[in-house]
Amino acid sequence: MKKMYTNYIASFKGLSKEIWFLALISLVNRAGTMVIPFLSLYLKKDMGLTETDIGSIFAFFGIGSVIGSWLGGKLTDIFGFYKIMIVSLFLTGFCFIALQYIHTFWGFCIGILITMSIADSFRPAIFVAIKAYSKLENQTRSVGLIRLAINAGMGIGPTLAGLIIVMNGYGLLFWIDGVTCITAIVLFSYLVKDSKVRPSELRSKQENLDKNAVYKDVSFWIHSFICFLFGMAFFQLFTTIPLYYDQIFHLDEFKIGIILFLNVAIIVVFEMPLLNYLEKQKIPFTKYITMSCIFLALSFFVLYQNFWIGIIIISIVLMTLSEMLGFPYTNRFALNRAKEGLEGSYMALYAMAFSVAHIFSPKIGLEIVAKFGYQVNWLVTGMFGVIAIVLSLWLHRRIQKGL
Question: Where in the numbering of this chain does the Major facilitator superfamily (MFS) profile domain appear (predicted)?
């Protein structure tokens, strides 16, 4: 036990103070992000929308995410990550507060589109910040620490949110989301100072730098499509899966929050030691990405059996293992592939892959559920993982050839 504790503590050593501050604001922000995991239930129960309408709203969620990711990457390459992070998160706080006052289908579509366009401009900026504030040898653990903070916050958030919903309904959650966004960015501006070097200055020193290099990088496009498929499957966790728990196993919001907390608890306890161990191994990132896709596909195929409630625990554990490998190493691949001065563009394409998945994953998943049932949806979703496995193997071979 003492050795396990020592190894756990060792996994956090060597990270910069800026990374720790980024982790702190991520924890504060995500602890307050209570609405998103229960958004599909809110739209169905409080607004009385159908599965098709909910899928459409999540499609607007994804479109806003694509716009925000693209815009955030472009602006990060011009102004640097610091200003983009502050403006994005500050305005996002007010957007979340405003969403609770929208009660029509089209109004909510427009509201969520605007909110996510602003909110997800933050994503390329924080990815570039991670690269700026970490050393090459500990980038994976830096990503892991940020993810640990996010997941710890997400563990606190849904668990408390489930209790708040049962006691007081959904309205208070929007206020908490908004206030914590604003609080998090105020903390960031106080604790972390702006970088003086602008990406545009780095580009000006490189005469032959192709500003469109990211769009000509075939291997990076393959990687982005893998991320898209990964997102197509993983984002079911926030749309069809809570509905599945509610309608098939008759779990209330508090119990659903407890199950989602299991995902978070495994990540908080095991991800950093795992990444610390894997960081010392001379294994290509692409192999870890392949393994994550295998776990993801399995997590949905096992859900095809719905006669035993324990199967949802097995599924969430497999999905968590996939997440622990998938997100850190797809992120690390993108950071390593990004050319100096164009980090914003590379990380924008990386973020956009998941954002596009946000458009199609809920819409396709909920449409399949409405017409064919949950079991068919799990088979289709599992196949996204299978295709991602094949592409990961292809990417691995290209990288081994230096392509």
Answer: 18-400
Q: What is the pLDDT of residues 325-336, one digit of tens each?
A: 998 899 889 888
Neighbours of 186 (CB within 10 A): 16
* Number of domains making up the chain: 1
| DSSP letter assigned to residue 134 | S
Residues 257 and 167 sit within 8 Å (Cβ to Cβ): no
Can you tell me the distance from the alpha carbon of 21 to that of 16, in angstroms, rounded to the nearest whole number? 9
Compute the Cα dihedral for 25, 81, 179, 358 and give only its sign: negative
Q: What is the predicted pLDDT for the residue at 109?
A: 92
197 three-state secondary structure = coil
Other CB atoms closer than 10 Å to residue 105's CB: what's the count? 16
Q: Is residue 47 part of a domain?
A: yes
Pull the structure tokens for residue 253: 């919001």
Residue 199 domain-assigned?
no
The answer to whether the beta carbons of residues 97 and 141 sit under 8 Å apart is no
Domain extent for 224: 15-192+214-400
Q: In whole angstroms, how far apart are CA 290 and each of 141, 302, 303, 307, 327?
A: 19, 19, 21, 30, 12
Provide the whole-model pTM.
0.79
